What we know:
Number of domains: 3
Largest sheet: 6 strands, mixed
Structural class: alpha/beta
Radius of gyration: 27 Å
Mean pLDDT: 77
Strand order of the largest sheet: 12-11-13-16-14-15
Number of helices: 17
Distance between the termini: 51 Å
CATH class of the largest domain: Alpha Beta
Amino acid sequence: MRIVLFVALLQLLLLFSAVDSGQAQGTSYVxxxxxxxxxxxxxxxxxxxxxxxxxxxxxxRFIAQRPGDTAIENAYFLRARTWHGLSQASGGRSDAEEAIxxxxxxxxxxxxxxxxxxxxxxxxxxxxxxxxxxxxxxxxYRRVIHDTPTGDMVSEARKKLTALSVxxxxxxxxxxxxxxxxxxxxxxxxxxxxxxxxGPEYTxxxxxxxxxxxxxxxxxxxxxxxxxxxxxxxxxxxxxxDEIIINNGLVQxxxxxxxxxxxxxxxxxxxxxxxxxxxxxxxxxxxxVDIMGSPSRAPQVQIARPPSTSPIADDSIAHILGSxxxxxxxxxxxxxxxxxxxxxxxxxxxxxxxxxxxxGPNGTREKDVNxxxxxxxxxxxxxxxxxxxxxxxxxxxxxxxxxxxxxANRVGADLFISLHANATTGSRAYGVETYFLNLAKxxxxxxxxxxxxxxxxxxxxxxxxxxxxxxxxxxxNESSRLAAEVQQSLVAGLSSRYSNIRDLGVKQGPFHVLxxxxxxxxxxxxxxxxxxxxxxxxxxxxxxxxxxxxIVQGIKKYxxxxxxxxxx
Length: 568
């Protein structure tokens, strides 16, 4: 009996030893590849960040434990591809940067690999399309051509450079992207103008350029700190002033001059050493410099405009931005998510006080419907998600549009939802639609934005002219994802209970109420108050409750997709 027991124990020990050995070896590459294929072919799996992170961890383990495996190059490439896919699903800048880092790491470790040209090309695409870093993309596309001349992505890289109006040089360029040393383009870019905006906690300097440029920032410390950029192979416009005086407590002045035959230099003289952020934008090409800090004296909102800007447009834009000294625009820019998930949501009932919003054929005022629905939504969010919810207004009071996002920024909201009811001149239009902040792609979207902003279409055109710059740090990708999830849930939730629910889709527009929000934000048009049938629904508590529950479901799906679930 003892012998039998001993043999049984020995068999169990051998079994556990075999299991531990298998775990130590990790998953095989074939299994990892199968897991990768399963993930990228399933939209449902892609919605959960944990699925991406689990696969990434398995790739990390495989690479660490099997450096000599015959499939190690494949594993490096698929790991980078997984980060690439995660960046597309999340819209996160840090995820995109990590994908680029891993693509470049593969190209450095395995320069002769058949994956090297693909890795460099994908890194360039991320820089161009996801990060709006055209200079970085140009350098990476050139690396594809000169580091991997026999690769199958060389022709594609040439097409990309041609589309960027960059001449492909016949001689190899440096492969040290970190030093930002690139060859001269066929036609030298031109620094056309320098503009700036001042707010209570930042100054934004915008360099308008005719083409992508290479610009490496340098910060000189000391009693007279200054931030300067050498713009490689860049000329200066003849109308560009030698200096622009700002003196707002953060920045003293901005100077531009030709430094030598190969570069121009832009110098930003600072009041003291400050934090800064650089963003490159295209269509048109700009270099945006945000300098953050509390000014030593009260700043004033000013706009340094190029000479070609008309006074009429200037007055309209200044009005849109809010040039009143008592109401400064707030732009607190979150550097990175703290990883705590969604804990605070600000709900904004549109209109209010002396602004009734749209009025239905039976006298229903949009401001009243929005407030009633906002209170129901706030209660549903607190009950179903356990998050903190604040309203921009809890009674019938008037708020400036900019005050609404200022409030959301000030309290550190994780999401901003603005509730509205749609309207047209006729009574037949019906349906639900959700908007996020961007340039209007259709005349209808521009018209809705004009109505909600209380502006003319000409004002909207002027506003779009500056949105290029003001949205440089807005969470556009996250907001579009939030709007998509909310719209899908609205259509699904309402269609199961009401007839004639028309899906008008997710749209983008220059909504002033969303301008300046530093968190993902969306504007919901829950129905047409000018349609008698939908006006009646908007007055119904049941309809308001169903809209609120649908928005909650949309936020749930958004949070799961972005890996931002903070509630149990």
